[in-house]
């Protein structure tokens, strides 16, 4: 790696243009403790939604709606975001930001509850894209469901897969870091998937289902 690499990554992070309404949602997410995606990660999510033509998206971890706004912007105008969160307070905030951004109510299906209770109720292969951004220790169980939900050619995206620079450091061996590190390797080795780790934000792992 050249000595300019960290500067290049920082440049790429700052390169993303974050519209004012998404910036407001991000700030509200930070205020509520629902850590939002960074602008660069959000722009990558929008790009993935647009390139897959995602009409049906599931999100685990609504937060205050920041990632949802990015996804909605990449989806076609009749696309529907199904978003799941245990926190009613976070979902109230998200509903308001979707509304303020001018998204029709029928474009979002906001489901309250634990993801591991809700996900099994969703239909097999009915979704174009699934974003996983809930409780980190539950990621392996979310992924099992996400792989069932996504259609062939669809995409499963996991946020925080660099976990605050801990995953890349082999000396860090706490349970959450080890879980995320092992999960990424398992998905990389799955022949049914094409997996890429994008070093944007806190790390987006993108798995395309063959
Ligand atoms: C990192 S925040 C999501 C941020 C959001 N994706 C964004 O970028 O704006 C994680 C969210 O997951 C929710 N959460 C935590 N445990 C959960 C669970 N078991 N099921 C569903 N949601 C959960 C939290 O309430 C929180 O809003």
Automatic annotation (TrEMBL):
Keywords per UniProt: Methyltransferase, S-adenosyl-L-methionine, Transferase
One Gene Ontology biological process: methylation
InterPro entries (UniProt xref): Cation-dep_OMT, SAM-dependent_MTases_sf, SAM_O-MeTrfase
Source organism superkingdom: Bacteria
PROSITE patterns: SAM_OMT_I (PS51682)
Record-level Gene Ontology MF annotations: O-methyltransferase activity; S-adenosylmethionine-dependent methyltransferase activity
Alphabetical list of PANTHER family matching this protein: O-METHYLTRANSFERASE RV1220C-RELATED (PTHR10509:SF85), O-METHYLTRANSFERASE-RELATED (PTHR10509)
Full protein name: O-methyltransferase
Organism whose genome encodes this protein: Dermacoccus abyssi
